[in-house]
Design brief:
Layout (H helix, E strand, L loop, with lengths): L4 H45 L3 H4 L14 H9 L2 H33 L4 H13 L6 H11 L6 H25 L2 H9 L4 H12 L1 H17 L2 H6 L8 H6 L11 H21 L1 H14 L1
Length: 294
């Protein structure tokens, strides 16, 4: 007795649905595992910042606290000028990001559209500088800072951060400028736009997602940078959040304030989370456009 074609077709469809459902389940499990692996350190710091000291030092480890406290946050701002640290990090990061975009956007547009002489050499040099580890610039920058007497000055951080982020800014924006249709720029020139007007009024508004994405990358680097901020800023009122968090001390030399350090980590990370969530749509547009270009 042979199977009818209709029965075979129904069986194959059921098998395909089962395989499809299994793939969806495995894909969902993989996403959950990746999220747990990525968010576990941040979740651990967040929970620790709300634990009482007895739960932090308890053996075996108390993973999920049953007693919550805000004392670590109140002590953080009561014992140290943490609002000042937040202002320092924000001012340095915003200023260096703005300068990197203000300098990098015209440079990227010139490389993408104006085709200057020696373009390949310029691009190769920018790429080499991008791959060059920033820590290797430390001793040279220290000599320059001392010679120019910029120690304990915001410029001691703003200038290096801008210079380090500038090559990456140029390369990223150049790829987006090349993606724009050139006919639109030609039409604007026919209407009387010069190069600066064309860049400011037409090109930059069209590449806003790319500007936001690049700006957030440069901002995160400046916000999290530690070595330069630790060395060039020695006055207490000029320290940034990473340095201030690393130098938190306990009541005695034998005490490690885990709760205060966790609270400082949460406070230092919270502005970045808000920034990314606020510009989430622009970031996705910029990354999608870059992926399509690639």
């Amino acid at each position: 007795m042979s199977s009818t074609p209709q029965a075979v077709s129904t069986t194959s469809r059921a098998t395909e649905k089962t395989k499809f459902s299994l793939k969806k389940i495995l894909f969902f499990i993989a996403i959950v595992l990746v999220l747990l692996f990525s968010l576990a350190p941040a979740l651990w710091q967040l929970l620790t910042s709300f634990k009482v000291n007895d739960d932090i030092a308890a053996v075996p480890t108390v993973y999920f606290p049953t007693r919550f406290t805000f004392s670590h946050y109140t002590e953080l701002f009561a014992r140290r000028p943490f609002w000042r640290y937040i202002f320092n990090s924000a001012f340095v990061s915003i200023t260096s990001t703005a300068l990197a975009l203000a300098i990098g956007a015209p440079a990227a547009y010139a490389l993408a559209r104006l085709r200057p002489w020696g373009q390949r050499v310029i691009l190769a040099s920018i790429l080499i500088v991008t791959l060059f580890p920033g820590i290797l610039l430390f001793l040279g920058l220290l000599e320059i800072i001392q010679a120019l007497r910029l120690g304990n000055n915001y410029l001691a951080l703003i200038i290096p951060y801008t210079a380090i982020n500038l090559p990456l800014t140029i390369l990223v924006l150049k790829s987006f400028f090349e993606q724009l249709p050139k006919d639109l720029e030609d039409s604007a020139r026919v209407d009387g736009y010069n190069t600066l007007q064309l860049l400011w009024q037409i090109v930059l508004p069209m590449t806003l997602p790319a500007l936001v994405t690049t700006g957030i990358l440069t901002f995160i680097f400046a916000w999290n940078e530690f070595i330069f901020a630790l060395t060039f800023m020695t006055r207490e009122e000029l320290k940034t959040i990473p340095v201030a968090a690393a130098q938190l001390g306990g009541a005695t030399v034998f005490e490690i304030p885990y709760g205060a350090i966790a609270a400082a980590t949460v406070v230092g990370t919270f502005p970045l989370v808000i920034l990314v969530l606020f510009f989430q749509r622009r970031i996705v547009q910029g990354l999608t456009a870059g992926a399509v270009k690639g």
